[in-house]
Structure formats: structure tokens, C-alpha cells
Task: inverse folding
């Protein structure tokens, strides 16, 4: 079992690609190499292959946080979890249930006005996780740039103390604490843990 994220940048035409493209590429490069594991296509769409599906939600939230550090931008993503039947030197030419689930679910996101969903072969898993995501998006869709930067830095450095995180961004420890609280970092971390526990039960 693997995971595939299909996504696109919301409001990409309002911001110079020279600003958001390096930010997106930086996160994708932390996961794998292009074009085998990720590709950006049609200007503002992307597809990312993730070997370990347990990491998929964390990576999706990292992408969201990175993009939301830029004013006016957000990202729409569908995580597909399943097998890979055909690999290729280009991720967009690979195939299998993970790619199909991700691609099909992504196509319906705009209509549903949702920015992050999961699809797998387990309907009850999808139902539960997508409910958690709907609730989390009530906060995540409204992160300020500073809150998004704080979440991004925290996810990239999970073992760092708040004082160390503050030194990266250039703020004091108490400011780190209040930003994480406003961004609901603790609750989002708990949601990621639940996602991983429920997914392990299925794998």
C-alpha cells in the first residue's frame, strides 16, 4: 500500500509563480525526487507519490502550511491510498488504485468546496477521517501566514523544543506557544495520530 496526493494551488494566478513555485518544490523535494516521485503540471497542479501511506496526511498538511505562508494562496488536495500496479520514470504516467482514488476524488473537490480529502478501499476509514478533516479545515483554511509558518516549521522539526522553533522564525518561546495554540497544532497532531492508528488497523 502506498499513497498519492493530487493537488492544485488555489488563487495561483493572483501571485507570481516565482514566489510560490519554489515553496511548493521545497516541500515536494523533502519527500522525493522529480519526475519519478512528483511532478508539477498544467501550471499549478501537482502529483506526489508517497511510499509510506502513514506519512501522507502529515505531508499534505505540510504542503498546506507551506503554501499558506503566502498571502491569498491555499491548496486543494486528495490523498489516495492503495496499491500501485504500474510504475514509470514519471509519476503522472504511473497507475493503480492509489492514483485512481486520488485523481477521481480530486476532480470532485471544487464542487464540494473541500480542500483536503482521503480516499481508499475502506469506506468506514474514509468516512471517519474525512469527517475529522472537515472539522480541521474549519481552522486550517483560515490560518494566517504567521500561523502557517509556525505549523510548517513545527512539522518539519518534530523533535525541537518551542524555544528552538522560535529561534528559527525569530520569535520568543511564548509567541511560539500562542501561535501554535491559535493554529490548533495540538488538535491537528492528534488527528494525524488517529489517522495513523486507523490506517494501521486496515493495512
Result:
Amino acid at each position: 500500500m502506498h499513497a498519492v496526493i493530487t493537488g492544485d494551488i488555489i488563487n495561483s494566478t493572483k501571485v507570481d509563480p516565482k514566489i510560490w513555485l519554489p515553496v511548493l518544490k521545497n516541500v515536494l523535494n523533502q519527500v522525493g525526487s522529480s519526475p519519478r516521485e512528483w511532478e508539477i503540471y498544467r501550471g499549478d497542479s501537482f502529483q506526489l507519490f508517497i511510499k509510506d501511506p502513514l506519512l501522507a496526511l502529515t505531508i499534505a498538511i505540510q504542503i498546506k502550511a507551506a503554501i499558506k505562508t503566502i498571502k491569498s494562496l491555499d491548496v486543494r488536495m486528495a490523498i489516495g491510498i492503495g496499491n500501485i500496479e504500474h510504475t514509470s520514470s514519471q509519476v503522472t504516467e504511473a497507475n493503480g488504485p492509489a492514483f485512481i482514488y486520488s485523481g477521481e476524488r480530486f476532480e470532485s473537490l471544487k464542487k464540494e468546496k473541500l480542500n483536503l480529502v482521503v480516499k481508499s478501499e475502506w469506506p468506514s476509514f474514509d468516512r471517519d477521517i474525512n469527517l475529522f478533516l472537515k472539522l480541521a479545515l474549519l481552522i486550517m483554511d483560515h490560518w494566517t501566514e504567521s500561523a502557517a509558518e509556525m505549523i510548517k516549521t513545527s512539522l518539519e522539526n518534530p523533535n525541537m523544543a518551542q524555544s528552538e522553533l522560535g529561534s528559527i522564525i525569530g520569535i520568543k518561546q511564548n509567541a511560539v506557544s500562542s501561535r501554535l495554540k491559535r493554529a490548533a497544532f495540538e488538535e491537528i497532531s492528534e488527528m494525524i495520530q488517529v489517522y495513523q492508528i486507523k490506517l494501521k488497523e486496515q493495512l
